[in-house]
Amino acid sequence: MGSPDRGEGQVPAATRALAILRVLARAPGPLPAGALARELGLPRSTVYHLLTAMIDQGFVTHLPEVRRYGLGVAAFEVGSAYSRQEPLQRLSRLVLSRLVDAVGHTAHLGVLHGREVLYLIEERAPGRPPLVTDVGVRLPSELTASGRAMLAALPQAQVRALFPGREAFAPAPFNAAPAEKAGYGEGPPAPSSLPELRRVLMTVRRAGYAVENDAVTPGFSSVAVAVLDHNGYPVAAVAVTYPGGTVSDHERLVGSVQAAAAALERRVHGGGRQPGRT
């Protein structure tokens, strides 16, 4: 049986190994050891030691011809297992059910998939009609409240990579609310260029939530809040969709969606404190 000191000494190594995996997962391709050391603020010798152990376990692969390191087969297996087990859906169902009980309108959970929002769960409120945001449906992220909430949490460089030109933007199927009327129950016009999208996302960041009105389904509005991981990256968005003109207390609705997103963050983080929240 190991001593307590030995156990405590293993924690930093495990944390650093996981940090390497996160950096490699975010990178567009394999990285040299020096880049990993700079990114993590670690001595290069420490990074080489960790990489060697991770290669032995299959989580990292070495590309000697270019002197770079990438994710290994074991990392792929973990990612595939995550998809099979659907943990995000399992963690979200109770949160969405409670949100529907609180607001009386249909709630849904979406994730970013390229430039689109992929809807994973729809918790329909009693007596409410089915929506286009059914499970498995994909919609242009810039048109939806869920997509705008998640795009607003991404680095600007990543948003620019997703929307390099006007051809990347989907035409709005319906006329969105004029910008001068944008408020709790209204949404900004559907963006058709990167500058327009940046203005929309700036409004979302300031408000702490995203809105959409008539841009997806005529007569319906949505409010959405991003769910962030440990690094502040948007893993999903919680949203509520309701018929226009049926919500009198928009502040209460927004607060309920924000509370649901915070509750899901706590579950995603295993009960730990979320970044940027109190």
TrEMBL record:
- Gene3D superfamilies per the record? 3.30.450.40, Winged helix-like DNA-binding domain superfamily/Winged helix DNA-binding domain
Recall the GO molecular function terms of this protein's record. DNA binding; DNA-binding transcription factor activity
> InterPro entries per the record?
ArsR-like_HTH, GAF-like_dom_sf, HTH_MetabolicPath_Reg, Tscrpt_reg_IclR_C, Tscrpt_reg_IclR_N, WH-like_DNA-bd_sf, WH_DNA-bd_sf
Keyword annotations from UniProtKB, A to Z? DNA-binding, Glycerol metabolism, Transcription, Transcription regulation
Ranges for domain HTH iclR-type: 11-73
GO terms under biological process: glycerol metabolic process; negative regulation of DNA-templated transcription
- PROSITE patterns for this protein: HTH_ICLR (PS51077), ICLR_ED (PS51078)
What CDD domains does this protein's entry cite? HTH_ARSR
Q: Which Pfam families match?
A: HTH_IclR (PF09339), IclR_C (PF01614)
Transmembrane intervals: none
Domain spans labelled IclR-ED? 74-270
Q: What does this protein do?
A: May be an activator protein for the gylABX operon.
The name of this protein is Glycerol operon regulatory protein
Q: What organism is the protein native to?
A: Kineosporia babensis
